[in-house]
Write a sequence for this structure.
């Protein structure tokens, strides 16, 4: 046996850790409990928006899979190198549209890694603090989202009168789109109104009004408007 063989064997033996069956079961059990906890928190926080059950179930599975991988990597350097090679060819092409979905995805993976490493206290305390942060920050008041006022008029000279009414009822108004031809005027206006119904009634009283609509919008809010 040459020097290179001795060095290789000693390296492999030095990186092998004996993991007891009890240790494996405890790691997987705690991971399962924490991932189910993440499942419940995701379900609660997404009750007001579109809830994706399959994504939520995948969070539980992802934590358990990650823990199993970490436990396997700890057992042998050969397995760890094989895992690196196998995972390097995996490509995820599903786009994450919601920022909070990305947070829960990373949370689930982190719990799997931490529990796989046997640092259960860190996983538990981190999960509790993340939960508190999510619920506390969610309760903080946010700026009022502007609404979109759509006005269709047969009087092409009615813009000044429309904006006069809008400014009476809205603290903020901004024309986002203006379409005009020889017979009609169409305005799309960003507004922040408290008495929406009264504002629409007053605009409808103007001469030449065909249709007035006020719709909400989902998106980012700019402070200081």
């Amino acid at each position: 046996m040459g020097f290179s063989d001795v060095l290789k064997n000693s390296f492999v033996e030095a990186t092998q850790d004996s993991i007891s069956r009890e240790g494996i079961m405890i790691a997987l059990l705690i991971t399962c409990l924490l991932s189910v906890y993440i499942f419940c928190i995701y379900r609660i926080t997404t009750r007001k928006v579109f809830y994706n059950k399959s994504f939520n179930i995948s969070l539980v599975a992802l934590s358990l899979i990650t823990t199993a991988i970490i436990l396997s990597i700890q057992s042998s350097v050969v397995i760890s190198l094989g895992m690196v090679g196998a995972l390097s060819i995996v490509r995820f092409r599903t786009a994450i549209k919601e920022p909070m979905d990305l947070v829960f995805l990373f949370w689930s993976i982190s719990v799997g890694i931490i529990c796989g490493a046997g640092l259960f206290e860190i996983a538990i305390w981190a999960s509790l603090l993340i939960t508190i942060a999510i619920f506390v920050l969610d309760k903080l008041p946010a700026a009022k989202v502007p609404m979109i006022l759509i006005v269709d008029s047969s009087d092409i000279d009615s813009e000044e009168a429309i904006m006069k009414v809008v400014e009476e009822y809205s603290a903020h108004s901004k024309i986002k789109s203006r379409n005009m031809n020889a017979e009609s005027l169409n305005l799309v206006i960003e507004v922040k109104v408290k008495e929406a119904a009264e504002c629409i009634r007053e605009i409808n009283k103007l001469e030449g009004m065909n249709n007035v609509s006020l719709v909400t919008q989902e998106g980012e809010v700019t402070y200081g408007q």
Q: What stands out?
A: Helices lie at 3-14, 21-45, 53-75, 77-87, 99-116, 120-139, 159-169, 196-204.
